[in-house]
Amino acid sequence: MKNRQGIITMMLMLLFVSACSRNGGSSSDTSRHSRLLPGPSGKYEQPVPIKIGITVESTRSLLEGETLVDNQYTRNIRNNLNIIVDYSFKASPSNYNQKVSLAIASGDLPDAMVVGSVELKEMVEADQLADLTEVYNTYASPVIKGIVDSTGGEALDRVTFDGKILALPNVQLHADGIHLLWLRKDWLDKLQLEPPQTVEALEAVARAFVDQDPDGNGKQDTIGLAGPSATGRLYASFLHSTNNLYGFDGIFSAYNAYPGYWLDRNGQAEYGSVQPETKEALGKLREMYLSGLIDSEMGVLESPAESVAAGKTGMFFAPWWAPYAPIDDAVRQDPEANWQAYALPLDKSGDYRPHMSTATSQFVVVRKGYEYPEAAMLIINNLVLGESQGTFTTERGPTEYPLRLTYAPTDETEYEVRALRQILAGTRTAKDFLDKPEYKMLQSDIRGIRSVKLEPHDQYDIGHWAPDNNRAMWVRAYSLMVGGSPLVDNEIKGVFSTIYTQTPLMESRWLKLQRLEDETFLKIILGGAPLEAFDQFVQEWKAQGGGEITREVNELGG
Description:
Oligomer: single chain
Distance between the termini: 86 Å
Mean pLDDT: 90
Largest sheet: 3 strands, antiparallel
Shape: globular
């Protein structure tokens, strides 16, 4: 009898376990749990898997012993959200877009990934994306919603199609699109030169850096001005308007030339690359390159950062955050490398007129059919919260954080510079900024800046800093106070593109036109084609679809 009861009990237990397995393990039940999350800080009751595509920057921000699957970021996401991160593909920055394009073309999509505006449009047209309207409205944190709202509707407009939010937009700093002149001021001082106000003065400084042995090794082995890498760009464009390291953006804008941008000319949109100002700027770059003032290996180097870090380059153009890389590496090798940033050169009217970026250029997309679309939003919320609380241990920013997007008010750099100046001067305290959660790193910056900034507090040469006291804090503070100060202390008469997205005609013709432009301009600068090749380029560009695209841009209100 006892044996029979034991068998019955065992059978009932097996049936119970089987039922629990069917119910608890089913996608529909887990999906139901996901809809019961309490809000932006909610945690799943059951582990939720997500497979993403990720850019790998040589695992720059991973700690010793960590992997892409098991690191401080993935563990933080699992502990806080019960989301298990894995990867559909991993790619270097130079190969990431190709991986994304292959995934779109094949339909073999990760659950979520970061894409640009071109890829977003392709996925919308292919009906590959989940509707994230409810996800954003329900789960986006108040801080993120406030930052998105600060763009005046631009960010959400970029991701809304037929009334549906089909992607999660980043919000980036306008400062990321301003490519300042970074310069070895210690070389400048050694040669008794001043920061170059004009292109002609910049040319003279580059000549001195090449000819007058500024590094003191008795050789002529220094570079005046860096140029773009093999995968880099000569200048930012309306489709890639930010973070253009080592391009010649500053020289073009000094000629009031804005190649790659759509410009408002008397109420009509015109493409900047076919304007006479661009030809003039190309002529000057050609002169400088053929005179040996620009890195002779531009366009073939994997990374110009190596010569900057090695102390062989005197100038390059980059956004305010250049100390994260390569300047941190340069100062590690030479603590007296005094890299300073300038809103230079000026145009012929004495104005600084850089091109300006769009408020949003990257997007997290979720594949249609993924069972937990809100997981992507929760991962982004977690990043923004972690950055504001100083959760992550890294000197270079959380570059390997899954689905990493920038969320910052468009004036964050300038606001922080002003705030930190007041803190250092003692005119305000941290309490005065407690009501500014959207500036998510401000409180940690306030707490840490005195550990790395030496007196006098209003002097930013490298000798007035203590990098080794807190390397991560120094990189952040040096970027803000050295890279951000030119944006605060100078009048920025920025030039915006009339559009920052592709038009229908561009989808079939822009790739060919862009290749024609890139190849022609590079040949002109390197001496492989005469400057007059520009005129032939303009004719071909218009004949091969550029003229029709210009009309389309105007018809669409560009």
